[in-house]
């Protein structure tokens, strides 16, 4: 069995009893950083052998771990903080376990993204986890463009030395009046939540330097804005062009005018009269 074990994201006391017992009981623990994990393991008196498993050896080391698992051993994966596989190594290993018929389970616990959104004051009904934005310029621009149209709450991770630049990029893509909650140092002594706008956040960090790791919880695009933009696009067309759009889809004229009225936010009677005027 492969165990994906959640570790604290800040406060050591968020480690669960089940996580501790699992790490004590397995044959091997694969750690993102053995030095960081050693502090955690020593704190809870865990003496299980460890091996490194990180972004730069995750493919080669996965084969080693799979060999141990295939031999009947129990292996746990932990990262520096939070759940393995969420912006940390683990995803590829899990997929390879499924391919080879090896059982996988998760020992749940702290997760920065979920912790942040629940305390953010932003809507948590629907959200999109974007993790760290891509470093490649073209890919980053594409993701930001997609985010600008997303009506779900958006969750982004960011390091302090990149925060100011990222906030400016978010303003350019999403607009400065978009709501945002900046959560930093989650579960630690100096945990901070700042609910503001993107413009407000930019102004704030002109006055002080970012400190600690950030989770940005960003308001999704409003449904009203989506409707207004769609309406504006239709209004750029003539009524006849708009009508033809639906007729070309095989719709009858009566149904087409009904859809046109919805698109433009007017009554069907107004569309009918306006089309008559255009024809004359």
Number of helices: 12
Give the total of beta strands. Answer: 10
Return the CATH topology of the largest domain.
Cobalt-precorrin-4 Transmethylase, domain 1
The quaternary structure here is single chain
Q: Which range best describes the helical content: under 10%, 10-25%, 25-40%, 40-55%, 55-70% or over 70%?
A: 40-55%
* Number of spatially distinct domains: 3
Reading the helices and strands in chain order gives: EHEHEHEHEHEHEHEEHEHHHH
Distance between the termini: 77 Å
Strand portion: 15-25%
Q: So what's the CATH class of the largest domain?
A: Alpha Beta
Strand order of the largest sheet: 3-2-4-1-5
C-alpha Rg (nearest Å): 26 Å
Low-confidence stretches: none
Largest sheet: 5 strands, parallel
CATH architecture of the largest domain: 3-Layer(aba) Sandwich
Q: Based on helices, strands and strand pairing, what is the structural class?
A: alpha/beta
Mean pLDDT reading: 91
CATH superfamily of the largest domain: Tetrapyrrole methylase, N-terminal domain
Any idea what the shape is? elongated
């Amino acid at each position: 069995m492969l165990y994906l074990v959640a570790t604290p994201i800040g406060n050591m006391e968020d480690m669960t009893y089940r996580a501790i017992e699992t790490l004590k009981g397995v044959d091997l623990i694969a750690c993102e950083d053995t030095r960081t994990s050693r502090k955690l393991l020593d704190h809870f008196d865990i003496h299980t052998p460890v091996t490194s498993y990180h972004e730069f050896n995750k493919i080669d080391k996965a084969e080693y771990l799979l060999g141990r698992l295939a031999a009947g051993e129990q292996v746990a994966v932990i990262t520096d903080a939070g759940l393995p596989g969420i912006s940390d190594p683990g995803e590829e290993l899990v997929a390879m376990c499924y391919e080879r018929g090896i059982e996988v389970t998760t020992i749940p616990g702290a997760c920065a993204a979920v912790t942040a959104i629940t305390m953010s004051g932003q809507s948590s009904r629907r959200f999109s986890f974007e993790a760290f934005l891509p470093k490649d310029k073209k890919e980053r621009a594409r993701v930001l463009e997609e985010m600008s149209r997303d009506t779900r709450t958006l969750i982004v991770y960011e390091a302090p030395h990149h925060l100011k630049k990222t906030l400016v990029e978010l303003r350019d893509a999403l607009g400065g009046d978009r709501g945002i909650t900046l959560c930093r140092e989650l579960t630690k002594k100096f945990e901070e939540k700042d609910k503001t706008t993107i413009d407000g956040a930019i102004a704030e960090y002109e006055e002080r330097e970012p400190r600690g790791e950030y989770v940005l919880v960003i308001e999704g695009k409003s449904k009203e804005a989506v409707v207004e933009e769609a309406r504006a696009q239709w209004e750029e067309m003539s009524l006849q062009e708009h009508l033809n759009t639906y007729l070309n889809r095989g719709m009858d004229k009566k149904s087409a005018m009904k859809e046109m009225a919805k698109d433009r936010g007017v009554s069907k009677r107004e569309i009918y009269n306006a089309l008559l005027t255009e024809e004359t």
